[in-house]
Amino acid sequence: MAAQSPVKTRQKQRCQIVGVIATSADLAVAAGMPEPPDIFELRLDHLFPIQDELERKISSLRAPLIATARHPAEGGANTLAAARRRELLSRFLPHARYVDVELRSAESFHALLTSLPHRNIARILSLHDFDSTPTPRSLHAKARIAKSLGAAIFKVATRTDTAAQLARLLEFISHDEADLAVSVMGVGQLGALSRVVLAGCGSTMAYATLADRQVEGQLSVSQLQDSFRILGLR
């Protein structure tokens, strides 16, 4: 019987801080930040009512952009149908460094995702479970699917109200079974702790608030920047 290949330990790398822009207030803060985060995420599902304002002000954002229009079942706002979400993403593709689409939406967004390499835009495939945290085995399986679909990064955001739930994310990020960069974080009572701890364990991106917090457990950009400096992650 052939020996199984050993599971690789995930290599630690510099975790990038992502400032989430979901409101007009967020946009105003982002445009005037003296120390912006590494990346801004445009939550186009939230920004749908002010997309014209966003387009006018987008040139003032002094960091690369992730464009996402979240599925309603994974926390998306305004109950947007897939066609409207594709329309929003297509409108803002010229400004994006990354596009984030949920793993569940990859098939229906196939044409858009296929166009990204020609635009030099990286693909993030994501999973959001705000009720629980799947087992590490399940997360590894989904990471392998994300890689097979061309993801540059697999993003995971799950419920972390208990130490056991956080331990599942730590177990997942500790082993690089899919040979794929991951961005891993928790929401809930241990969400803030998870973003700092997982950043030190190999998560490539940590998401933070600007003016308005969208989910329980988010730290602000400045809090995350300070935490990273204290822990030597900056």
Beta strand count: 8
Radius of gyration: 17 Å
Which regions have little confidence, pLDDT < 50, spanning 5+ residues? none
Query: Mean pLDDT, nearest integer?
Result: 94
The rough form would be described as globular
Largest β-sheet summary: 8 strands, parallel
Series of H and E elements: EHEHHEHEHEHEHEHEH
Range of strand content: 15-25%
Count of alpha/pi helices: 9
Task: List the strand order in the largest sheet.
Answer: 7-6-5-4-3-2-1-8
The N- and C-terminal alpha carbons lie at a distance of: 46 Å
Can you describe this structure?
The protein is α/β, with parallel strands linked by helices. Helix content is 34%, strand content 20%. The chain has an 8-stranded parallel beta sheet with strand order 7-6-5-4-3-2-1-8. Strand 3, helix 4 and strand 4 form a beta-alpha-beta unit.
Task: Give the gist of this structure.
This protein has 234 residues and is α/β, with parallel strands linked by helices.
Any descriptors?
8 strands, 234 residues, alpha/beta, eight-stranded parallel beta sheet, single chain, 20% strand, 9 helices
What's the layout of helices and strands?
Elements lengths: L15 E6 L2 H8 L7 E5 H4 L3 H7 L7 E4 L13 H11 L5 E5 L7 H6 L6 E8 L6 H13 L4 E7 L3 H12 L6 E7 L3 H9 L5 E4 L12 H10 L4
Parallel strand pairs: 1-2, 1-8, 2-3, 3-4, 4-5, 5-6, 6-7
